[in-house]
Structure formats: structure tokens, C-alpha cells
Amino acid sequence: METFLSICIGLGLSAACGFRVFVPMFFVSVAASTGHLTLAPTFQWLGTDAALIIFGVATVLEVGAFYIPWLDNFLDTLATPAAIVAGTILTAAMVTGMSPVLKWTLAVIAGGGIAGTIQAGTALGRGASTLASGGLTNPLYATVELGGSVLTSAAAVFVPLLVVIIIPTSAGLLYWRWRRLKNRPNQAKPQPSAS
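The structure assignment produced for this chain is given below.
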């Protein structure tokens, strides 16, 4: 059961990386340094004071940058590979009691895959927001993403079994949104009526 819970925590944190890369890293650093989270032995560095400061500064910069229209779209190109790496690291950091080959396979495929999928979905959503409003609604979109990252990180650490519900629900919502955008009929311009 402990291994299953550690997998749930890791995958939940990976999902949170899909919304914001550094929020879950900072959350893990705080939780580990206060004793609320146990890390795999080779990832104890995540709970150090240096990591706490670095991830705290990175979180503030990342959150602030996503509130700047057009810069946020550029950041999505950087955030996608970064989210995959962060999701992989956090999953590996949480999983204990597993052979290294199985642990890293799970971390890369499931952790990195979940983070990358959610990040890709949020990037598509931000692109649609930019096209629809010229970037005016992007700060609202950034707030929703930030909330998703914070709530998912907290749920993963404090209620890890909730991750079993959050991840499939998030994936389903992203898929539904993608299908809706894909199947949107082309709106034809109305023809002027002959009088």
C-alpha cells in the first residue's frame, strides 16, 4: 500500500507540473523540509534550504511571467519539455521500494507523460485564449492554471488517493476540450441579402 500511495503522490505532483513547473517543486521542497513528505534517498536534496530558496524564487518568476500576455505563449514552448523533466523527477523522488529500472520507467512514462499531456493541453488552451481575446483573457487563464497546480500539489501530498480521481478527470476534460475545438464548425460569413 505504501508503494501505491507513493506512486499516487508522484503522479499527482507530475500532473501539477503540467500546470506550472516550479509550483509543485516548491511545494515538495516545503513539505519535505517540514517533515510532511518522505523523499526517496537519492532525492533528499529537494528538501534542503538551498532547494527551497531556488524553487521559491523560480516559482515567483514563473507565476509572474505567465501574467504577461504574449510572453506566456513563448513560455509554453519552454514549459513543455521542462514539465516533462519535472514530472519525471518528482515521480522518481516519491516512489520507494521499487527496483531502479521499474521506478525510472514509471517516472519517465507515467510521470513525464502526464506532465507533458497536461502542459500541452494548457498550451493549446492559452493559444485559443490569445486568439479569441488578443491576450486580454490570458491573465485569467494563468490564474486558473496556478490554482490547478496548487490544488493538485496539495491533493497529491495530503490526499494522495484523490489523485486517482483528479488525473483521469483532468485528462478527460482536456480531451473533451480538444475534441470540441477540433470539431468546431467553420463559421461561414453571412451572405448579404438581395433586396
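Interim note for the steering committee: Residues 2-159 form one domain. The helical segments are 2-19, 22-33, 49-65, 71-94, 100-133, 138-158, 163-182.
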